[in-house]
UniProtKB/TrEMBL annotation:
SUPFAM superfamilies xref list: Thiamin diphosphate-binding fold (THDP-binding)
Pfam family, one: E1_dh
Listed name of the protein: 2-oxoisovalerate dehydrogenase subunit alpha
Keyword hit for Oxidoreductase: yes
Organism, as annotated: Protaetiibacter mangrovi
Length: 372
């Protein structure tokens, strides 16, 4: 299921700005971006792709239990991630590595999780309100909706103060739209007019099931049945991703209710490193999307604006440095103490957990005494 007549595209595959009736509402949002932010779009896409490839290599070399690639989806994530304000809360699925990085998450936290060294979490208030990766397909849509309901109850929606008004942004894939949790989230979001944006990254494959087998109509049409305004965009266009998400979040924060964005992109790699996409995908389809690579397209746009080779060389070096640093730090990781299993079970200290931790410590000590 590729582009439709409704697809909003601000950058052509050749990297030129598209000016039309469909893009007119969004072009002012792009015009308002300063040069540093435009350059950051490219920087983040390139750096995270290199990190992503290196993490996949580390998994193949036995350093990680699993890796979840984001190759090909950089524009959808970078544009939307930069559209959020600091007070917004972001609920990822499990592939939004660069959104976490934009919000302040050290990507090594993801590597630690997929190496099995952590409980799989971080403290959102320490990572720019970027919440935990959610491996249960679609459940984060309910988490985001519940949080957005709380925002409305707390009175941080529709005040007119840009420093106060807040919203949630939740990511999920095309496969998740077949889950009950996502559809239930639509019901509550529409009923309570929650301040949130549902951001669907339609990468065309729910593991080995193509999107056309899940839906006979474009997925952006589904929310209309729940009363949620929606838009379909070219997800390999970082400017379209930014502008439509910015517009959607602004409307949500203003108290106008939820919005839905379907970003048409493509998962160039495997679903995870446990998957072999060559068994179910056609080369022609992969070639079609590789010709619409988000980084190549955006580089052409920047070069058209006069950005020179020095910048692109600088970004390439930064990407290599991050990849090398990730490898070095991964190889230096050590196993956590067994006591870690008792940490963060509750927010505050709990006597039952303390009792169990003491018992386990004595249990382990018994083995050490027996061995000596």
């Amino acid at each position: 299921m590729s582009y439709t007549e409704a697809t909003v595209q601000l950058l052509s595959p050749q990297g030129s700005l598209v000016e039309s009736d469909a893009t007119a509402p969004y072009l002012p949002l792009i015009a308002g971006l300063d040069e540093s932010r435009l350059l950051d779009f490219h920087r983040q896409m390139v750096v995270i792709r290199r990190f992503d490839i290196e993490a996949g290599n580390l998994q193949r070399q036995g350093q990680l239990a699993l890796w979840i690639p984001s190759l090909g989806q950089e524009a959808a994530q970078v544009g939307s991630g930069y559209a959020a304000r600091s007070q917004d809360h972001i609920f990822p699925a499990y592939r939004e590595h660069v959104v976490g990085r934009i919000r302040g998450l050290d990507p090594m936290r993801i590597i630690e999780m997929l190496r099995g060294l952590s409980h799989g979490g971080w403290v959102p208030e320490e990572t720019g309100n970027f919440h935990l990766f959610t491996l249960v397909i679609g459940s984060q849509a309910l988490h985001a909706t519940g949080y957005a309901m709380g925002m409305r109850f707390d009175g941080v929606v529709g005040t007119g103060d840009p420093e106060v008004d807040a919203a949630t942004l939740v990511y999920f894939g095309d496969g998740a739209t077949s889950q009950g949790d996502v559809n239930e989230a639509f019901v509550f979001a529409a009923s309570y007019q929650t301040p949130q944006v549902f951001f669907l990254q339609n990468n065309h494959w729910a593991i080995s099931v193509p999107v056309e087998r899940q839906s006979r109509t474009p997925l952006y049409l589904r929310p209309a049945g729940f009363g949620i305004p929606s838009v379909q965009i070219d997800g390999n266009d970082v400017l379209a991703s930014y502008a439509t998400t910015r517009a959607g979040l602004d409307a949500a924060r203003a108290g106008e209710g939820p919005r839905f964005i379907e970003a048409l992109t493509y998962r160039m790699g495997a679903h995870t490193t446990s998957d072999d996409p060559t068994k179910y995908r056609e080369d022609e389809e992969t070639r079609f999307w590789s010709e619409r690579d988000p980084i190549t397209r955006y580089e052409a746009y920047l070069r058209g604006k006069g950005v020179g080779d020095d910048f692109f060389r600088e970004v390439a070096v930064e990407a290599e440095d991050l990849a090398a640093d990730a490898r070095r730090r991964t190889l230096a990781l050590t196993d956590p103490p067994t006591s870690k299993v008792f940490a963060h079970v509750y927010t505050d200290a709990h006597p039952l957990v303390a009792e169990e931790a003491a018992w386990y410590s004595a249990f382990e000590a018994g083995y050490e005494e027996a061995g000596s």
